[in-house]
C-alpha cells in the first residue's frame, strides 16, 4: 500500500545495501595496521628501577632519565629478531653521542651478553624487565620499540618496530626537539 | 628443529622411527605424526622468550573472591599481541605478564575498574572490551536505541493501517 502511495520507498533497501557495501569495501581496502600506540606520549615516565640485565652493565631507573639530557629508551630482547636489524642504526646514534638506554624484556643475562657480543653494545645502561612491568607501564606492546624521553623524563616519541635507516631522520628530529 | 630441517632437505639423518617401520602403509601416518611431534617439541623460532612467565600469570590468587574479580577483569582486557583475544584466553608472553599484573594489583586491593583505568591510560580504550560512553563510541550506544525507536514507529504505522 505504502509502496503504491510512495513508490520511492521501494528503493530504500537497495540504497541502504549500496551504502553498507561501500562502507565495507572502503574498510576492507584500508591497509591493516596492528600497531598500538602508547597513550603515554607527553606524560612523565613512570617511576621504576630495574636491575642490570647482564654482568658489566648498569641497571636502569627512571631517575637516570631526568638528568637534563634527552635519552633514547630502547625496548629490546635477545630473542627478538628485528632487534638485531636495528643494531647498526643504534650503533650509529650512539657513535654520534646520543645517550641510549636499553630495557631487556623477558631476557636472561647470558642471552643479553651474547646479543651484545654479536650485535654491539650502544647502551649506556640496560635494565632487565623480566615480567614486562616497565614495558606495560609506558604503554609499549612489543619489541623492538624505542621512546624518545626528554631531559625532564617526559616521553616525547614512540617508534614501534625497528629503527631502520629511513627512520633515522624522524628519531634525530625528535631528539633535537626534546632538548 | 635442525634435525627436522636436515630431514626435510633429504639429509642423511633419516629419523630412526622410519627405519623401524617396515610396513609401507604405515609410513604416511608415521611421517605425519613424527613431523607433528617434531614441530610440537621444537623451540619457537621467532619472537618468543625462553624465560619463565611472570609469577601470577598461571597461578590463581589464594583468595577466591579476588581471583574471581581478577578473572572477570582479564576476560574483558584485550591481548596486545594476539589482537582479538582476551588476556585470559591468550598464551602470548605479554598477555601472561598482563595477567600477572592484573592479579598483583587486585591482590594489593585495587578495584577492577582502577586496574582497567590504569591500562586504558597506557594503551587507550582499545585495550578494554568494555567501551566507555564517549564521543567516538556514541553511535555504538545510541544505535540500538535509535533502531528500536525506528522499529516502534514502523510497527505503530503498520498496525494503524491494518485497523482501518
From TrEMBL, chain A:
<keyword id="KW-0201">Cytochrome c-type biogenesis</keyword>
<keyword id="KW-0812">Transmembrane</keyword>
<dbReference type="InterPro" id="IPR004799">
    <property type="entry name" value="Periplasmic_diS_OxRdtase_DsbE"/>
</dbReference>
<protein>
    <submittedName>
        <fullName>DsbE family thiol:disulfide interchange protein</fullName>
    </submittedName>
</protein>
<dbReference type="InterPro" id="IPR050553">
    <property type="entry name" value="Thioredoxin_ResA/DsbE_sf"/>
</dbReference>
<comment type="similarity">
    <text>Belongs to the thioredoxin family. DsbE subfamily.</text>
</comment>
<dbReference type="InterPro" id="IPR036249">
    <property type="entry name" value="Thioredoxin-like_sf"/>
</dbReference>
<feature type="transmembrane region" description="Helical">
    <location>
        <begin position="7"/>
        <end position="28"/>
    </location>
</feature>
<keyword id="KW-1015">Disulfide bond</keyword>
<dbReference type="Pfam" id="PF08534">
    <property type="entry name" value="Redoxin"/>
</dbReference>
<keyword id="KW-0472">Membrane</keyword>
<keyword id="KW-1133">Transmembrane helix</keyword>
<feature type="domain" description="Thioredoxin">
    <location>
        <begin position="39"/>
        <end position="177"/>
    </location>
</feature>
<dbReference type="InterPro" id="IPR013740">
    <property type="entry name" value="Redoxin"/>
</dbReference>
<dbReference type="InterPro" id="IPR017937">
    <property type="entry name" value="Thioredoxin_CS"/>
</dbReference>
<keyword id="KW-0676">Redox-active center</keyword>
<dbReference type="InterPro" id="IPR013766">
    <property type="entry name" value="Thioredoxin_domain"/>
</dbReference>
